Structure formats: structure tokens, C-alpha cells
């Protein structure tokens, strides 16, 4: 699939490297179709914190072959849409992994930010 822009096509080995081989200390949560991990991408001069979302085949849910691939592509296409790419309430897509048996997406993530800091503030006080 051609994505374009600054989205990276990543290998499963890249995802494992970002999350320290999907270590338990980087595990964040389980979602309906897989797991979510925290990770980091170390560049020469800087470190980028990321979230890595991995789709897994589930024996619990009944779905057709190819459903996970379709969900992955829908997510990548949505987050590349010019109408939402810079939306302040959406995470920024860094890249994706689309290999046989391994599906995942990587989002940029600021672990030091809080919901309070993300909510826009106005200059009004209660007295005004």
C-alpha cells in the first residue's frame, strides 16, 4: 500500500526494537484486537517516544480472514487524511507494519503531557 508523506513502513523487528522486544515493562493494555505498548525510537541526537499497537489473531472474537488487515488500513488512511492529520485531539501516526502474520501501527506519544495540559485554556476568570 502506498501511503506517502512522512509515514514510515516498518518491519516487525523495528516494532520489537522500539518496545524492547515487547517487554512486560512496556506493556500498556489489551484492546479488543491486540495489545498496546510504549516504546521509544532513539536517533543520533534525540529520542522519540511512541505507542505501538499490535493486532493479534483472537480465538475469542469471530471475524473473517483479512478483517485485521482491513482495520489497519482504515486506521492508516484515516490518520493520513488532510482533514484530520493535524487535529489537536488525535495522535500523530509515525508508521505502520504490514507483514504476513504481523500487523501494527506506531503513534508519536508524549509521556510527559497530561490531559490538563492538552485542554485549551481561555483567559477568562470566574469574576469576568
Automatic annotation (TrEMBL):
One of its GO terms (molecular function) is protein kinase activity. One of its GO terms (cellular component) is plasma membrane. Keywords: Cell membrane, Membrane. The keyword Hydrolase does not apply. It is found in: Cell membrane. The keyword Transport does not apply. Its main location: membrane. This is Protein kinase domain-containing protein.
Amino acid at each position: 500500500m502506498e501511503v506517502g508523506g512522512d509515514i514510515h513502513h516498518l518491519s516487525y523487528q523495528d516494532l520489537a526494537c522500539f518496545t524492547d522486544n515487547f517487554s512486560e515493562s512496556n506493556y500498556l493494555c489489551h484492546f479488543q484486537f491486540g495489545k498496546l505498548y510504549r516504546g521509544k525510537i532513539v536517533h543520533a541526537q534525540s529520542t522519540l517516544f511512541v505507542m505501538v499497537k499490535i493486532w493479534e489473531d483472537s480465538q475469542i472474537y469471530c471475524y473473517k480472514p483479512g478483517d485485521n488487515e482491513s482495520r489497519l488500513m482504515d486506521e492508516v488512511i484515516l490518520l493520513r487524511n488532510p482533514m484530520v492529520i493535524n487535529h489537536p485531539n488525535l495522535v500523530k501516526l509515525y508508521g505502520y507494519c504490514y507483514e504476513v502474520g504481523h500487523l501494527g501501527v506506531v503513534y508519536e506519544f508524549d509521556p510527559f503531557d497530561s490531559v490538563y495540559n492538552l485542554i485549551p485554556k481561555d483567559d477568562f476568570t470566574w469574576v469576568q
